[in-house]
Specification:
The chain is of the alpha/beta class. Helices cover about 40% and strands about 15% of the residues. The longest helix has 13 residues.
Length: about 180
């Protein structure tokens, strides 16, 4: 039988553990291929980008103010990124219907995919971590991004993703390697 101390320790461990169980990808690994539907209902397949450079940007959910700020940075720099030959795919934990609502206020010039079942997050090993999220929450850069992200959106979008998800970016080369 568990003592109260053991039980308390187990609960703390569960709350603060890094929940990601996926293998982490490294530079030089082949990028996992995927097929998904974007917010327009069109199929998007990474293997169709062979011969092109791709930025795959993973976000939390459509209403996340820090993610809102990050996506606006991509929008502002889109022409420059595109002129360097990069295509951008943005992936959110939100479902496509929530993203469509978000996109009415924030038109995005690149492909956006809702992955509410987290299939792509698992394939790419995008982790959740309460400890890392909390550690970054009080940094000046995060606080500024949160303030700016809140100002960018007038509409309140429902939170349909995990607050502890850590946003991640992957750059895939022309041959499909990270």
């Amino acid at each position: 039988m568990f003592t109260k101390k053991c039980l308390a320790f187990a609960i703390i461990l569960i709350l603060f553990q890094n929940i990601a169980v996926c293998q982490r990808l490294k530079v030089g690994d082949r990028s996992p291929d995927f097929e998904a539907l974007d917010t327009n209902g069109d199929s998007i397949k990474l293997s169709n980008y062979k011969g092109q450079k791709v930025v795959i940007a993973f976000f939390r959910y459509a209403g996340c103010p820090v993610c809102n700020y990050r996506v606006h940075e991509l929008i502002e720099n889109y022409e420059s990124i595109n002129s360097e030959g990069f295509k951008i795919i943005a992936i959110y934990e939100s479902d496509n219907s929530t993203l469509k609502d978000y996109l009415t206020e924030t038109p995005i010039p690149f492909r956006v995919v809702g992955d509410s079942k987290l299939n792509l997050y698992r394939k790419y090993g995008v982790e959740k971590s309460f400890r890392k999220m909390l550690g970054s929450a009080f940094k000046r850069q995060t606080i500024e991004a949160m303030k700016k992200g809140n100002k960018l959106s007038q509409k309140k979008i429902k939170r349909d993703g995990n607050l502890t998800r850590l946003p991640a970016d992957f750059i895939v080369d022309e041959n499909g390697f990270l």
